[in-house]
Design goal:
Number of helices: 4
Mean pLDDT: 82
Number of strands: 6
Helix content: 10-25%
Strand content: 35-45%
Low-confidence stretches: none
Radius of gyration: 17 Å
Oligomer: single chain
């Protein structure tokens, strides 16, 4: 049975980002990358990981996002200064309609994208010789940690 294969990976690493203001033209940023590969793409697993990371950071979902996405959740105004939402995105790396940004919403400040997640497009998987459906998330750890005085873990 070829579809009994299941592979999960999680990596925290430094990534280079172009930065014209830096002395060397680039800076290092910490990224968390997780993938789920198996008989199905496992988008719900990766989406659940994003929700769990933000719950541990004690950042609640925005009322509109929670009411639309969480069963049994009653939409109500929150006193939280910082909330998050998962916003659909069109990115050719991912399968159409199966990609989103995780966006921090802060009262009085501009929204900030801290992660992208989705089902990886079959053409991308073929480029890496991956034969099974895969979902992935890339999260900017420094953007999450810098959004406020985040406790080490609110779990």
């Amino acid at each position: 049975f070829p579809y009994t294969t299941l592979f999960r990976s999680l990596e925290l690493a430094l990534a280079r980002r172009d930065d014209e203001d830096a002395d060397v033209g680039a800076t290092n940023v910490r990224k968390l990358v997780a993938t789920y590969t198996g008989a199905t793409a496992g988008f719900e697993v990766i989406h659940g990981l994003a929700d769990r990371i933000l719950a541990c950071a004690m950042i609640p979902p925005s009322p509109a996002y929670a009411a639309n996405s969480l069963k049994g959740y009653e939409a109500k105004e929150t006193a939280a200064e910082l909330t998050y939402a998962v916003v659909p995105l069109d990115d050719p790396t991912y399968f159409p309609g199966r990609c989103a940004n995780v966006v921090l919403k802060s009262k009085g400040n501009a929204d900030k994208v801290i992660a992208t997640l989705g089902v990886v497009h079959p053409d991308v998987l073929a480029n890496f010789d991956i034969d099974y459906p895969t979902s992935a998330i890339e999260l900017d750890v420094e953007a999450l940690a810098g959004c406020r005085a985040c406790p080490p873990c609110g779990c």
